[in-house]
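User: Can you model how adenosine-5'-triphosphate sits in this protein?
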Amino acid sequence: MQSAAPREINVLANHSVLNLSFDDDSLCVQPSPLDHAPEVGCCSAFFSRKPRITHTRVPIRQVIDAHCSERTLHLTYVDRNHPKTPMELRHLTSTVIEEEQSSLMSWSEALMELAYAGVHRNRYLRVIINPFGGPGKAKSIYTKKVEPILAAGGCSLDVTYTTHRYHAQELARDISLKYDAVIVVSGDGVVHEVINGLAQHNNPEKAFCIPVVPIPAGSANALSLNILGLKDGLDPCAAALNALKGKQMKLDLFSLNMHDEKRFAFLSHALGLMAELDRNTEPLRWMGDIRFMLGFLYEVARLKTCPIQLSIKVVDDDKQRMVDAANARNSLTQQWSPEPIDDKGVSADEGKWVDFQNPIIYMYAGKGPFMSRTLMQFPASMPDDGLIDIVLQEVIPRKSLIDAIDIAEEGGLFWTKETHYVKASAYRVKALEPSYFLMVDGEEVIFDEFTVEVHPRMATVLSPYGCYPREFKLPNPEDKSH
Ligand SMILES: Nc1ncnc2c1ncn2[C@@H]1O[C@H](COP(=O)(O)OP(=O)(O)OP(=O)(O)O)[C@@H](O)[C@H]1O
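Assistant: Here's the modeled complex, given as structure tokens:
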């Protein structure tokens, strides 16, 4: 009969004996009871020649590598110093104590099996880096933080730095289907190019099965925030861990159809104030996401209405029901397996065309709760409900817009009656002014008229959760004005 692999082992590191153990949830590094430190007087902890080893518990998902050669064990994991600080790569090299040498190999293999449970190891990754995205730090983010994690995780890497606009689109159009994922070290603009490149591939259906994994190195990094949540969304190490261990999650896309041309988006269509603030702060890219705040204040000062005619194929307009469905979806995917989830409460065919007449200061249509770190625009969004969430902001006083800044991260305007929030399967817009424009995933498009349709579950991303992690608090019923 085969005995179970040992889950505990004692090793020597930094002149101390450490006890390394793991269970299904975590790896634990702590001083070993076998460690008999020579003590010096009564102030032993202070005067001891040995460095003090603190007790460390690392979630099993954060273990990246464990391998051994003879009596030496190499452990690699990511961890943080404090719950609020970003992740860092850590290595621990140790020597197993002589009596436990025979267990070392089976201990490290058992740990690796748990650390990669349900996940294909040694991924083959296509890496695309925009050295000029956002504050221009993509290259050092990749070489210092991301690449060491991917290399330690045994990935094979084909890396290209973009040299011009649309380079990423060309690379995605010609991508080989043998890759396990395409890693995009940039902001959302380059992800947009990759999505449109995959759509132009000679086998688009298969190409869209290659998961796209954003590593935040742009200004807003909304896709990364939506996949990883507010806490980890701007952390390149957390994003690299997702490239290594994330599971596939399907993502709806939406296409803008204009003059026989189709342009896919994965994140947003913005019109009016929200589009102006994005376009007018383009030269401030180097500031990171602070540029959006400055742009917002400027646009609120000159408050204009949108010169458009708008029709929406509305599938749901009940805010409470939409939030309940999104919350239910999030709790459903806590025991997530990457199988299709058929929990759609509504079907796209049920939509009814509605014309919106009231003057609005912006229209924002999108997927994913966060459009930036400080803006939860679509709290009811789901990655794969086959619908696009649309916000129409009626004219409200400047002061109310300014006040909303403080609560924008929590979806501040959602419940107000001047903020219309619907889920739709399609919409169409006609400009009432020449050379009017919208921002598609943050890229400017001039239009006279266009239609939009949703493409359910067309693209693939990697995710640790199988949903958009976000906290959205319900206000007191008396506070709701809608
Ligand atoms: N080598 C390059 N030279 C110039 N422009 C490039 C290059 N590579 C990509 N681009 C363009 O840079 C633009 C911005 O890129 P990116 O998405 O990385 O940053 P961002 O727009 O600042 O971030 P976010 O979209 O998150 O706000 C994209 O529209 C892309 O076409």
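A couple of observations from the model: The domain at 8-115 is CATH 2.30.29.30 (PH-domain like). Residues 130, 132-134, 162-165, 167, 186-190, 193, 218-221, 285, 442-443 surround adenosine-5'-triphosphate (CB under 6 Å).
User: Helpful, thanks.
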